[in-house]
Design brief:
The chain folds into 2 domains: about 160 residues, Bordetella uptake gene, domain 1 (D-Maltodextrin-Binding Protein, domain 2); about 100 residues, 3-Layer(aba) Sandwich (D-Maltodextrin-Binding Protein, domain 2). Strand 1, helix 2 and strand 2 form a beta-alpha-beta unit. A 6-stranded mixed sheet has the order 2-1-3-10-4-11, with helices on both faces. It is of the alpha/beta class. Helices cover about 40% and strands about 20% of the residues. It is built from 11 helices and 11 strands.
Length: about 325
């Protein structure tokens, strides 16, 4: 028994020593940031905005890998099964802990990811195509009340902050809307511009240029306050239609079991990437607010998302499939 215990202790020490050595030489190869949505949306735009400063801060090449679909579950699964060595990380958001409400047989535990840090946040805005028949948000509400389920809206996918915010608007105003989920904001905006879908809740960044050009129209900002990047768009609350918050919070997380020393290096590089005045201004112009912070802060925030938003998904009739 004593020999067996000594053997186990030796193995544990060797493993710890190996992890320590890997952390000391990290990073020695390119780091892949997996983005859960296709190119063209707000998530992809933010990931690419921090790509270069993150490369400089971490001292290694950073590659953006887009893996859309499943409301973000496909990308989460890829990273959950990746080696916990810091070379594959995930660009996540609010819906990380909501995946069990949408996916019946997840092959991973959303709570098992290791938090790295906050990246940035931005508001969501309810928009319509140029030929949408409603003048304002109150007309949309009245139309949905008159014919429950007839009014359709699109989002980047089930369980995204945009979906949750729109369903909360429906709940508070006792109306029924029909959700049309897309595989990311980019495809949604394409269909909005083509008039194939008349309404959508989108990140501000993804539609800003089309609002300025008049190709899309804004109905309301889903945020506690007006967005600094779009101060002329009133909030749902200002319009008398409820306290609707679809703020999208972007985060960086690592596979389960990633060593703390490697997480610390990734966190330091992330914070350095978003901390400079130049980067904060660049993100502001893109419609984002830079964040940063510790892994512990992100962990605490992540833990409360399911209790807040899970009931909204259930009330919307969303069931695991």
């Amino acid at each position: 028994m004593r020999r067996r215990n000594l053997l186990l202790a030796s193995l544990a020490a060797a493993a710890a020593g190996g992890a320590g050595a890997r952390a000391q030489t990290f990073p020695s190869q390119p780091i892949h940031i997996v983005v859960p949505f296709p190119p063209g949306g707000g998530t992809d735009a933010l990931a690419r905005a921090i790509q270069e400063p993150f490369q400089k801060a971490i001292g290694q090449t950073v590659v953006i890998d887009n893996k859309g679909g499943g409301g973000g579950s496909i990308a989460h699964e890829v990273v959950a099964k990746a080696q916990p060595d810091g070379y594959t990380v995930l660009f996540s958001s609010n819906n990380q802990m909501l995946l069990p409400y949408m996916i019946a047989r997840l092959s991973f535990d959303p709570a098992s990811f290791v938090p790295i840090g906050f990246v940035a946040k931005q508001e969501s805005v309810f928009v319509g195509s140029a030929d949408a028949p409603w003048k304002d948000l109150k007309e949309i509400t009245e139309a949905a009340r008159a014919k429950p389920g007839d009014v359709q809206y699109g989002t980047a996918g089930v369980g995204t902050p945009m979906h949750l915010a729109t369903e909360r608007y429906a709940l508070l105003n006792k109306i029924k809307l029909t959700h049309v989920p897309f595989r990311g904001t980019g495809p949604l905006v394409t269909d909005l511009l083509g008039g194939h879908v008349k309404l959508g809740m989108s990140s501000v960044t993804s539609v800003a240029q089309h609002l300025v050009s008049g190709k899309l129209r804004a109905y309301g900002m889903a945020a506690p306050e007006r967005a600094p990047s779009a101060p002329d768009i009133a909030t749902f609350k200002e319009l008398g239609l409820g306290d609707i918050d679809g703020t999208i919070v972007y985060t960086l997380i690592a596979p389960p079991g990633t060593p703390p020393a490697i997480v610390a290096k990734l966190n330091a590089a992330l914070n350095a990437s978003v901390a400079t005045p130049e980067m904060r201004e660049d993100l502001r112009k893109r419609g984002f607010v830079a964040m940063g912070g510790t892994p512990e802060e992100l962990g605490r925030w992540t833990a409360v998302q399911a209790p807040i938003w899970g009931p909204v998904l259930q009330a919307a009739g969303v069931k695991p499939e």
